[in-house]
Write a structure and sequence with these properties.
Blueprint lengths: L6 H22 L11 H9 L2 H25 L5 H33 L11 H30 L25
Helix pairs in contact: 1-3, 1-5, 3-4, 4-5
């Protein structure tokens, strides 16, 4: 049985995961477009081109790609109750981590940009704007899409269970479909 109701959310979650992996792969391979919008340690690491930096980049690409595969697996969970449960638990944990991470960073970044919070040091306002409006928001939206995909794949409409009792149409004995 496929999770028909979960397909749009699955597509969005998987698309965001694979697109995020592609951006990281581009930077890991030496691309520099928009790298200055990341700022801080992540930008320095990507620009360093050292073996450890490339390995970290490849690990991040792999983790994001696994996130996309997990999202896709929600549409057609693998056979067996344990394997389905592993996919659902992995998706739920991923959704929680991404939503909290993205939500926290978007909120704190917005509070800094609006002057509500003072970080007490220099701020790369351009990079921070990109984080609030793109990079961190991307994680938040990915997490929310994955949460919806997980929820709808678990709570999809199932046909009534057939048991020995009832009227043969899935209704308890004595109940009619019209009332």
């Amino acid at each position: 049985m496929t999770g028909e109701g979960s397909r749009p959310a699955v597509a969005v979650a998987a698309g965001l995961a694979f697109a995020s992996a592609a951006v990281t792969a581009y930077w890991t391979a030496g691309g520099t477009a928009l790298l200055d919008t990341v700022g801080g340690y992540a930008e320095e690491l990507a620009r360093s081109r050292t073996v450890p930096a490339v390995l970290v980049g490849l690990l991040v690409v792999a983790v994001k790609s696994v996130g996309g595969v997990v999202a896709l697996a929600l549409a057609r969970p693998p056979g067996g109750r344990i394997r389905r449960r592993v996919v659902v638990v992995a998706a739920a944990v991923g959704a929680a981590v991404l939503t909290v991470y993205g939500g926290l960073l978007v909120t704190v970044g917005a509070l800094v940009l609006t002057g509500v919070l003072d970080p007490g040091g220099p701020v790369d306002r351009r990079a921070l704007r990109w984080h609030v409006l793109c990079w961190d928001l991307w994680f938040l939206l990915w997490g929310l899409a994955l949460a919806v995909a997980t929820w709808t794949s678990v709570h999809r409409i199932r046909p009534p269970a057939r048991s020995g009792a009832g009227d043969g149409a899935g209704l308890p004995t004595g109940q009619r479909p019209d009332g």
